[in-house]
Amino acid sequence: MDVLCKKWANEFSHIEYIPVLSESLKEDNWRGREGLVHEAVLKDFANLNDYQLYCCGAPQMVEVAHKAFIFHGLPENEFFSDAFTFAVPIKK
């Protein structure tokens, strides 16, 4: 996925790719942004009233992000989400 996101950022001037890890390990040697992704968005965009936001992830994460984004001015009808849960793999 990282390669595809970098490709889009190189091809389209309106796309900026900023990876954020919530829990990097010391052995990862991660030098990028850390923390919760919705908090990283809010650090970069204090007011969201002119944006659309697309969010996917675990239901609790989507719910927390939704509330935070609305609080920071995102119009309710400009939040689009796909909350999902993880299923146990089917054994063959």
* N-to-C SSE string, H for helix and E for strand: HEEHEHE
Helix coverage percent: 25-40%
User: What percent strand?
Assistant: 15-25%
- Helix/strand-derived class? alpha/beta
Number of helices, where a helix is a run of at least 4 consecutive DSSP H or I residues: 3
Shape: globular
Give the total of beta strands: 4
Task: Please state the CA-atom Rg, rounded to the nearest Å.
Answer: 15 Å
Biggest beta sheet attributes: 2 strands, parallel
Strand order of the largest sheet: 1-2
Low-confidence stretches: none
What gap, in angstroms, lies between the N and C termini? Answer: 28 Å
Mean pLDDT: 91
Structural description of this entry:
With 92 residues, the chain is of the alpha/beta class. Helix content is 34%, strand content 15%. 7% of the residues are buried.
Summarize the structure.
The protein is an alpha/beta fold and 92 residues long. Helix content is 34%, strand content 15%. The chain is built from three helices and four strands; from the N terminus they run H-E-E-H-E-H-E.
Characteristics of this structure?
single chain, 92 residues, alpha/beta, two-stranded parallel sheet, two-stranded parallel ribbon, 3 helices, 4 strands, globular
Question: How are the SSEs ordered, and which strands pair?
Answer:
Blueprint: H1 2-11, E1 20-21, E2 33-34, H2 37-44, E3 53-57, H3 59-71, E4 79-83
Parallel strand pairs: 1-2, 3-4
